[in-house]
Amino acid sequence: MLGRLNHVALAVPDLAAATAAYRDTLGARVTAPQALPEHGVTVVFVDVGNTKIELLEPLGAGSPIQAFLEKNPSGGMHHVCYEVDDILAARDQLKAAGARVLGDGSPKTGAHGKPVLFLHPKDFFGTLVELEQA
Ligand code: CO
Fold first, then answer.
1. Which residues of 93-109 are buried (b: 16+ CB within 10 A; e: fewer)?
2. Is the overall model pTM greater than 0.90, yes or no?
3. pLDDT tens digits for 105-123?
4. CB-side neighbour CA atoms (13 Å) of 60
5. Active-site residue list
6. Deepest of 81, 107, 115, 128, by most Cβ within 10 A of its Cβ?
């Protein structure tokens, strides 16, 4: 089921500062910020060749990363995203195995315009897992 690592997401309190650190201090290629109101975040992707780093800043009230940043005020690793060939088949297989899919269980459109789902961190050893249909 599990394919390539698509990205590692870092929640950050200040997206402009984090983008500048990756671009200017680390010399990485970064994208322009992209607002994703459906997900309550603004994202910037950092291209590191073999995968991407997704920088996440809260967008709007009730952002799903707000509580995370309250617990981790300087930011931190928020989730890992793996590619799957068929997200509905993956979801059904995971649910049958007892894993909890967040939200209503139907895929949303992610930052790359592809369907994504999130899996409960308690079912995966403390790490929030995102699945993206490749
Ligand atoms: Co992500």
1. ebeeeeeebeeeeebee
2. yes
3. 999 998 889 999 999 999 9
4. 11
5. 130
6. 81
Half-sphere exposure (Cβ direction) of 74: Cα atoms closer than 13 Å: 0
How many domains, in total, are found in the chain? 1
Q: What is the CATH number of the domain that holds 22?
A: 3.10.180.10
- Residue identified by tokens 């989730």 is 79
Say how many Å lie between the CA of residue 98 and the centre of ligand 1.
22
Domain housing 126:
2-133
Residue 17 alpha carbon to ligand 1 centre in Å: 19
Classified as helix, coil or strand, 88 is helix
Tokens at residue 108, please? 């949303």
What's the 125 CA to ligand 1 centre distance in angstroms? 18
